[in-house]
Amino acid sequence: MINPRRSGSSAAWWLLGCGVLCALAAGGVHVHAQLRGPMGPLVDTKLKDFFLPGTQPDLTGDVLDPIFAPSNCTGCHGGFGDFGIDLDAEPARNWRGSMMAQSMRDPVFQAAMTIANQDAGFAGDLCIRCHTPAGWLEGRSVPTDGSLLEGADFDGVSCNFCHRLVDPIPAPGNPTEDAMVLADLATAGHLPTEYGNAGYVLDPTDSRRGPFDDVPFNPHGAEIIPSPFHSSSNLCASCHDVSNPVFERQPDGTYALGDLDKKHMTLNKADMFPVERTFSEWAQSAFAAGGVQMNGRFGGNHPTGVMESCQDCHMPDVQGKGCILNGFPERPNIPQHAFNGGNTWVLSAVHSLYPDTETKLTDSIVADANARVAELLASASDMELSRVGSDLRVRIINYSGHKLPTGYPEGRRMWLNVKFFDLMDLMIGEHGAYDFGTAALTTGDTKVYEAKLGVDAAVSMATGVPEGESFHFAINNVILKDNRIPPMGFTNAGFESVQAAPVAATYVDGQFWDDTDYPIPAGARRAEVTLYYQTTSREYIEFLRDANTTDSTGMIAYNAWVAQGKSAPAVMDQGDFQINPADFNGDGVVGSIDLATLIGSWGPCPPAPAPCPADLDGDGAVGAADLATLIGLWG
Ligand code: HEC
Ligand code: HEC
Ligand code: HEC
Ligand code: HEC
Ligand code: HEC
Asked: In testing the pocket of ligand 2, which one of 100, 103, 130, 243 has its CB within 8 Å of the most ligand atoms?
């Protein structure tokens, strides 16, 4: 069992990483090693380039009490799910099965962070800030390869961090305790003016902030503070809008490298390069504007079924108790710490890469979490199949609270696989073929929903990374494609205002679905259509392996991807469509209009690829046999 970060010989492991790097740098064998000086990043950014407002690391005295490890909470908030009691309600069990609990162990993350450090000096500080806030706040994020992180830092986004979060923007109903915290931060010049991009504020003293104001008595050494912020999407915004502060937005809307070793000029996320916009997508949707009745699709026991916040869908209400102690109420609305998203395989990878004694993962926690991911992905959208003239129209309707898919743009994608079958049920055409063995996707003949980032000419000049599409997170400064499907309530102006407009794709205001038309081949009687989701594409994982000149994280991630089935695509929707081949105009009946079409195209078909729908027997001409077939299908 390899444990890449934390084996007994972790020091030796880091030395090994350095050894590889030194060898490469000295020999100049790798393309990146040639582009920069020995061991230097492509862009010589410093720690200051990654400064963002919010509570700063311990060194400045902002954090007084230690951020307690989850093991300080799980004695009471855990241990009952494992016995099958309140399996769904227990915070600890479900949190462990979420990617947020594993965000620092995540092998894909570690591999990506290494590349970020190679590309831009100190970029790892930005990554660590969100992927293990406790480690960052307690001052262990420099050196930015994570080599100083220890113990519970690897528990990622953890209990005592989330439950000490303070709303950075005062709102009616917020705890009175907040005022002092914010005042101190304002004095230090670190008070955030907006939600997002790691601008989180931590209560410097330990507290337990949560949704309930009726806890019968306080069993904690720390104060319980009822906190409306914890039921608000604004809390999740802290990390679910990601911007790169190395880039300054220019008057023409492009993003250029700012002066090095200097803070970003405005520190506003809108003036930085947008990497993820999940919160902002949500904020511009109908969910934020009063919510949407989803009729039980999401939300568990939710009393009205109207879904609004991230928590409504990602922490569904369940019946049960949140702690193991007697004398506390069973509640119908325990927010399940599910936090599932679109990650189908990395939790399994973490489970096999790290010892259970460290992750506290069990086969059943992993299986339950993976089942919830599959269920969420299946609930995310609906598919409608119809015929429009000689085409099959595939409509995908987005029911999630943000773009579909949302979030981390690199490697994640959705696509349509369409298969046509003839009368004998033989496959006569396929779009978006995927090879489950090699993980190769045929992209040219189908719709792939994704965001593609890249570097422009200026960044290419400065770094040597070729202009155009790239997976170099820390230096990407253009969005080349974003055709992900908008959520309900979408407006072009709204999405434009949060740097989330569609790119190389068009959606009209109000459109939360997308249509793709596929020509129906001659002789097709049936179509089978599948919407697939893939967490990590082959192109991305190979990049993480091949671009790495520093350590073994890229290889570890790649091997884990192979071992877990190469991120096998998950089925989001699937449908079967019967095709009446003689219903040329797709109006549901074979009638005089179709007859007129057949007669109008009598004779040899035009040269391929021009369609020839009336050639029902596929013999290259429209003739008597086709007429007989049409009459046979009349009505
Ligand atoms: C000695 C047992 C015990 C320990 C240890 C413990 N808790 Fe609790 N906690 C409870 C009980 C009991 C409740 C009340 C449950 C209820 O009323 O449903 C509670 C409630 C909470 C709440 C809800 C507060 C609200 O107003 O909604 C939060 C948040 C919380 N705990 C966080 C934590 C965190 C974080 C830790 C670890 C740093 C922790 N607890 C450790 C027993 C404990
Ligand atoms: C503002 C907070 C924030 C910062 C800063 C941040 N991330 Fe993330 N990261 C996230 C969130 C939130 C997700 C989950 C998005 C999703 O699931 O789609 C994520 C997901 C990822 C993933 C996907 C993991 C997987 O298993 O597929 C990778 C890789 C990653 N981040 C790398 C990085 C790197 C490298 C950096 C630094 C250059 C970084 N992140 C900085 C918040 C952040
Ligand atoms: C109406 C329900 C709903 C709401 C509200 C909602 N989500 Fe989601 N979310 C989903 C569904 C369904 C998916 C799975 C589809 C997908 O991956 O995009 C998902 C996926 C995600 C993912 C994983 C994306 C990926 O593919 O890697 C993240 C991260 C996420 N949501 C965060 C949030 C945050 C943060 C908010 C609030 C700002 C939020 N969600 C609000 C339903 C919702
Ligand atoms: C990503 C942030 C996050 C993390 C990590 C997290 N929680 Fe929570 N927790 C929340 C939010 C948000 C709510 C309230 C949700 C709502 O109001 O719908 C909540 C609610 C609770 C509650 C009150 C409901 C109940 O279950 O009784 C307790 C207790 C709790 N959390 C304990 C924990 C413990 C223990 C851990 C770690 C094992 C943990 N939380 C990890 C965000 C988090
Ligand atoms: C401290 C930063 C932080 C906060 C606060 C935070 N998240 Fe996350 N979240 C992350 C990171 C980092 C990841 C990605 C972990 C990974 O994949 O390695 C993530 C991943 C997710 C995912 C995707 C899991 C998947 O399968 O891809 C969901 C869903 C999610 N978070 C929901 C929430 C919700 C809901 C809230 C608010 C209650 C929240 N998060 C608050 C940092 C945060």
From this structure: 130
